[in-house]
Task: structure prediction
Amino acid sequence: MIKLLYVEDEPSLAKIVTETLGSRQFEVRHIGRGDLAMDAFRDFRPDICVLDVMLPYVDGFSLGKEIRSLDSKVPIIFLTAKSQTEDALQGFGSGGNDYIRKPFSMEELIVRIKNLLALSNQSRNLEVSPEALSLGRYLFYAGRQELHLGDSVKRLSHRETELLSMLIRQKQEAVLRKTILDKIWGNDSFFNSRNLDVYITKLRDYLKEDEKIQIITLKGVGYRLVD
Result:
């Protein structure tokens, strides 16, 4: 049974979601306040988290950051009544994997949950070499999610590791933007596309100490990593 942590302060919505997911073979732990969620996360050890953004005491974005600091792989879906693009980007920047606007249908939520779980399982099943990959002056340890430059070590998130691994595997070649989005984010929606832009910017910043390394944007196509 899939364990799902659901943090939501609207009792009527929480009841509908909890009962519906329970009937679909999910074990749901519902928490109504943000400040109580981390204890539940540690105790429950969920397979996936669904977090409302507007929560009492601790908001969903802050909660997402706390969860991500403890677990780099557990999928996180944010629920929000807000529609601004900036809020979506803030959600992704807080460790979210997906973003659903209220009101939403239960079928949409279930499809997105299953999609993220499938992607998470695929990532866990990948055989990653413990050996370092050389990238210019850097050494990249995908299995440890680390980027080394001399004595300096940069700890990468799970998704940053996936993206850099994908670019390195096809180094000097064009990597299609749609391929990246489909394989790492699950689809090429507008919000996922904006999230990819954020991650590319992060990787460029991490690699800036070696001027020979470039992640080149191929307009309308994708990216090419060169060193």
